[in-house]
Design a protein that fits this description.
With 329 residues, this protein is an alpha+beta fold. The protein has helices at residues 9-13, 51-72, 80-87, 97-112, 122-127, 140-147, 179-193, 286-299, 301-307, and strands at residues 3-5, 22-25, 28-37, 40-48, 93-94, 155-158, 163-166, 198-203, 207-211, 220-226, 229-239, 242-248, 253-256, 259-262, 265-266, 271-272, 276-283, 313-318, 326-328. The strands form 5 sheets. It has a 9-stranded antiparallel β-sheet with strand order 2-3-4-8-9-12-17-18-19. A 3-stranded mixed β-sheet has the order 1-10-11, with no helix packed on it. Strands 5-7-6 form a 3-stranded antiparallel β-sheet, covered by helices on one side.
């Protein structure tokens, strides 16, 4: 039985696409590969019968992650996103149709989540030290100042002109809540187009998509970490043509004033969300599982149970001894 520990997927799959094909069963080969993009590692493991074709498909999927890095990375000064961050407060910036569609989706996620998903959260992540760091306690004045530049309503989209503009100075896009999910979906789509029927695509180990099933299995078996003891698993799921994303307070945090402050920021208050330990979502698309993980984390179990679509499965862990991790029905 093939079981992968959820938060360790990227490490478990890392290999070079050029030499990652190995025999798994008579007539079947396995190819693996990884690529660094958007400040994280994207990985693919795939099975097929044609070694050369399979390796080519994996390489193409990894190239797609690199292409999207050039569009979405806020670590690249020349990326499309970075160009928008530099100039959109001064003038409308013409962007590619793909980037415009993604920004439109982000605005829709923000509206539907009562502002808890917000791609303009960048200034808050910086003031809290979570951008390229592990975090630190800011002064209240710093938080208030950052909040002045946060809010999805500051994004002005012109569909006819294909431009984006910011309503005020200091607004900054941060793709951290959606970029990996979008990239994983695109990579999976290319694998399918290349005829791959069994593969697992991972974005940083926290957002994945499963195509078909590995040899002799009904699906890809994934262990979800226990947020109270990440060395253990809280649940195991079997994925087939589905995505899984997790947001947890144990992923990135720091101690200050006798408590833990996590990287999961509530854009409405300017402070890390409290009361939840982790949320895992199983959805048809990875962009949805990643985009909704943090709003469900922030808004709580009751809100999530009331508003989640029927085809979303949510595994919820609250920060309450009397409420262990459980699936939301």
């Amino acid at each position: 039985m093939l079981t992968l520990l959820f938060a360790g997927i990227a490490l478990a799959l890392a290999a070079n696409a050029s030499d990652g094909a190995t025999a798994e069963a008579p007539g079947l080969v396995r190819a693996e590969g990884s690529a660094d993009a958007m400040g994280t590692a994207f990985s693919v493991v795939a099975y097929g019968t044609d070694r050369a074709r399979l390796q080519s498909a994996v390489a193409e999927a990894l190239d797609e992650a690199r292409r999207l890095d050039e569009m979405l990375s806020n670590y690249r000064a020349e990326s499309e996103l970075s160009e928008v961050n530099r100039f959109a407060a001064e003038r409308p910036v013409h962007v590619s149709p793909e980037f415009f569609r993604l920004l439109s989706d982000c605005v829709n996620y923000s509206r539907a989540s009562e502002g808890t998903f917000d791609i303009t959260v960048g200034p808050l992540m910086k003031v809290w030290g979570f951008y390229k760091g592990t975090g630190h306690m800011p002064h209240r004045a710093e938080v208030r100042g950052a909040l002045d530049h946060v809010g999805y309503r500051n994004i002005i989209l012109d569909s006819q002109a294909g431009t984006v503009r910011f309503a005020r100075n200091g607004v900054e896009l941060d793709p951290g809540g959606i970029g990996k999910g979008y990239a994983v979906d695109r990579m999976a789509e290319l694998l399918k187009q290349d005829g791959v029927t069994a593969a697992l695509v991972s974005g940083g180990g926290s957002s994945i998509y499963a195509i078909g099933a590995p040899p002799n299995e009904s699906g890809w078996k994934i262990a979800i970490k226990d947020p109270r003891d990440p060395a253990k698993s809280a649940a195991q799921v079997t994925l087939r043509d589905q995505s899984l994303s997790t947001s947890g307070s144990y992923e990135k945090f720091f101690w200050a004033e006798g408590r833990i402050w996590s990287h999961i920021m509530d854009p409405r208050t300017g402070y890390p969300s409290e009361g939840t330990l982790s949320v895992s979502l199983i959805t048809p698309r990875t962009i949805d599982s990643e985009a909704w993980a943090k709003p469900y984390y922030i808004l709580g179990r009751d809100w999530t149970a009331k508003h989640k679509p029927r085809d979303f499965r949510v595994f919820y862990c609250e920060d309450k001894p009397a409420n262990p991790c459980a699936w939301i029905q």
